[in-house]
């Protein structure tokens, strides 16, 4: 038990550190653009501020808040969402004084994960004061992201343990006296899973509202936290855990088996209602794979813990019935590992989409770490199944008649008493290592499920084109969002060699040409939105291909500055 406590503590600390390291990446919907653009100054004072995300979001008790450098709020009214559900806006007080402002967003992404962050903008011609970022009020997020990851670790480990132990008791155990110990642990695990789920709700409420623990005293915030998906997921989890708990109470074996089976399925299925599976397409495949994956994980993890308990309890009298439990579990575990791996690979492929994503993204690297640990466990399990378990079963099978029939010469047995004892002890150690390594897998998974899937990260990066060119006056930066055929927004920022915004012209002419198509150049004009800053939104980039965008800034009566960009449109 002290060793188990040490392991749980170690994994919990690792989960905390991983959550700390991946915290900034733990949003599913990413901020792709803001108006004003992060770090730029505008003049005159804008009337609204907006934040655009890579996918649908909802506001709930969150939204956009804007503060000046004294920390005073300068937005008016509440935030609103556009019809596509991707852009959140809020009105500002009229004619804000010159200075730096920090806009903080708190929204709920479509898969149910809270997303928060901030961007800075200036009013007037002065540079933006980067130190104002500390006023965003998002510094406490890290603590709550770590708390959420730990709560998920507790919930996953306990819920899968409860469901798996109940399955083990109902289908694999020999109903010997030691079942009471397993029943006790199943009940403890169901209750711990509920505490884990409560922890997830509290962390969700804190992250959504930005009000820390005080959030749980506000019914509206809690209501928002369990709104839709998380609420349904928790309802399924609670129902599943109740059935699992009841399965250990009922003496009738068939009823107990039905409750363990369906309760376990509801528990595992509850995970698929909330999280990445609900947003990565094809959703039906993800949802099915997620349910199979979690159900198989429960059977394997709960079963292996059940087996460890049985083997540790029966050190003195490993008998044929124990060998039978081992054999039955070995077969069930092999089938579970098959389903778990197939479903895991389907989930992994949908979330990454390429081999390179495994090394180039946080999500991919965490997934790789998980797969490496699982591969080691499967190696140990394979050794158990192909060598240790047959040897044990054979040893116990030939010992039983030899014990009842004292005429059988012991010398004719394939396994001596000593070899039998060594095999049992080897198995005990091997399954204990497997169980501990599965706890580590659960720890990695608790962080993985909150990190933006690699496919989303790569798609979001593809959707924004951000290029900078050197010009006589310094640099000019062009950002095209979403860089997809159709309506796009162009953000153009002129800066001096030190990166400060500079005015090069009051109007800018933009030329759009698609060299691969026989199209005449389309010319548009836009006026200054702030110091050196121009914004243009229009439908000109309507065809897929590499467009040439030419910016012409009239810098004097007889001079102009021309800059060309090659922009891929998908
Ligand atoms: C071949 C090895 C495995 C692969 C490739 C794999 C892959 C994955 C992937 C891609 C996800 C989805 C994460 C997300 O939501 O973005 C996932 C979820 C999960 N995995 Fe695995 N996994 C493997 C083995 C395991 C094992 C051995 C266990 C535990 C016994 C496990 C437990 C879980 C759990 C609990 C979830 C969360 C389900 C949810 O919340 O929807 N996995 N896995």
Return the string of H and E elements. HEEEEEEEEHHHHHHHHHHHEEEEEEEE
Beta-sheet strand percentage? 15-25%
The strand count comes to 16
What general form does the structure show? elongated
The helix content, as a percent range, equals: 40-55%
Rounded Rg: 30 Å
Number of helices: 12
> From the helix content, strand content and strand pairing, which structural class follows?
alpha+beta
| Biggest β-sheet description | 8 strands, antiparallel
How far do the termini sit from each other? 57 Å
Mean pLDDT across all amino acids: 86
Main sheet: strand order: 9-10-11-14-13-12-15-16
Ligand inventory reads: protoporphyrin IX containing FE
Number of domains: 3
Low-confidence segments: none
Question: Layout of helices and strands, plus pairs?
Answer:
Blueprint: H1 2-22, E1 31-35, E2 40-42, E3 48-53, E4 57-68, E5 75-81, E6 87-92, E7 99-109, E8 114-123, H2 141-172, H3 179-209, H4 219-225, H5 228-247, H6 253-270, H7 283-313, H8 320-352, H9 357-360, H10 362-404, H11 417-448, H12 454-463, E9 465-471, E10 474-481, E11 488-495, E12 507-513, E13 522-530, E14 533-538, E15 545-554, E16 560-569
Parallel strand pairs: 2-8
Antiparallel strand pairs: 1-3, 3-6, 4-7, 5-6, 7-8, 9-10, 10-11, 11-14, 12-13, 12-15, 13-14, 15-16
Helix pairs in contact: 1-2, 1-11, 2-3, 2-5, 2-6, 2-7, 2-11, 3-4, 3-5, 5-6, 6-7, 7-8, 7-11, 8-10, 10-11
Bound molecules: protoporphyrin IX containing FE.
The site of protoporphyrin IX containing FE (HEM) has 30 residues, from helix 7, helix 8, helix 10 and helix 11.
């Amino acid at each position: 038990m002290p060793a188990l406590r040490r392991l749980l503590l170690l994994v919990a600390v690792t989960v905390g550190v991983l959550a700390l390291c991946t915290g900034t990446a733990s949003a599913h919907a990413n901020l792709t653009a803001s108006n004003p653009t992060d770090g730029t100054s505008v003049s005159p004072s804008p009337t609204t501020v907006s934040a655009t995300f890579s996918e649908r979001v909802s506001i709930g008790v969150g939204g956009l808040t804007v503060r000046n450098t004294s920390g005073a709020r300068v937005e008016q009214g509440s935030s609103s969402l556009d019809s596509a559900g991707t852009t959140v806006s809020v009105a500002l007080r009229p004619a804000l004084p010159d200075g730096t402002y920090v806009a903080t967003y708190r929204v709920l992404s479509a898969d149910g994960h809270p997303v928060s962050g901030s961007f800075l903008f200036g009013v007037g011609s002065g540079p933006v004061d980067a130190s104002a970022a500390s006023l965003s009020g998002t510094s406490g997020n890290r603590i709550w992201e770590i708390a959420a990851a730990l709560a998920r670790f507790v919930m996953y480990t306990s819920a899968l343990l409860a469901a798996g132990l109940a399955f083990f008791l109902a289908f694999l155990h020999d109903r010997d006296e030691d079942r009471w110990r397993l029943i006790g642990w199943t009940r403890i695990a169901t209750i711990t899973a509920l505490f884990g789920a409560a922890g997830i709700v509290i962390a969700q409420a804190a992250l959504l509202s930005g009000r820390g623990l005080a959030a749980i005293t506000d019914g509206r915030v809690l209501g928002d936290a369990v709104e839709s998906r998380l609420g349904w997921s928790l309802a399924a989890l609670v129902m599943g855990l109740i059935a699992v708990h009841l399965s250990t109470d009922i003496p009738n074996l068939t009823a107990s088996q039905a409750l363990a089976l369906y309760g376990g399925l509801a528990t595992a299925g509850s995970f698929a209602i909330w999280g990445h599976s609900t947003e990565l397409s094809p959703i039906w495949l993800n949802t099915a794979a997620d349910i199979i994956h979690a159900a198989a994980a429960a059977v394997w993890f709960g079963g292996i813990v059940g087996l460890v308990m049985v083997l540790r309890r029966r050190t003195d009298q490993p008998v044929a019935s124990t060998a039978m439990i081992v054999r039955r579990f070995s077969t069930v575990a092999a089938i579970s590992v098959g389903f778990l791996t197939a479903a895991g690979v389907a989930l992994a492929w949908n979330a990454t989409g390429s081999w390179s994503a495994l090394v180039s993204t946080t999500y991919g690297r965490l997934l790789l770490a998980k797969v490496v640990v699982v591969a080691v466990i499967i190696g140990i399990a394979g050794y158990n199944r192909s060598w240790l378990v047959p040897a044990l079963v054979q040893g116990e099978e030939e010992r039983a008649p030899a014990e009842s029939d004292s005429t059988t010469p012991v010398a004719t047995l394939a396994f001596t008493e000593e070899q039998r004892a060594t095999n049992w002890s080897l198995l005990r150690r091997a399954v204990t290592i497997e169980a501990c390594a599965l706890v580590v897998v659960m720890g990695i998974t608790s962080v993985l499920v909150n990190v933006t899937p690699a496919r989303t990260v790569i798609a979001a990066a593809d959707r924004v084109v951000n290029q900078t060119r050197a010009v006589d006056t310094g640099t000019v930066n062009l950002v095209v969002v979403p860089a997809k055929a159709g309506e796009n927004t162009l953000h153009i920022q002129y800066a001096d060699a030190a990166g400060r915004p500079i005015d090069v012209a009051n109007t800018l002419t933009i030329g759009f040409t698609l060299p691969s198509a026989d199209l005449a150049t389309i010319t548009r004009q836009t006026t200054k939105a702030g110091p050196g800053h121009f914004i243009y939104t229009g439908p000109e980039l309507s065809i897929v291909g590499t467009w040439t965008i030419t910016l012409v800034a009239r810098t004097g009566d007889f001079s102009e500055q021309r800059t060309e960009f090659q922009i891929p449109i998908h």
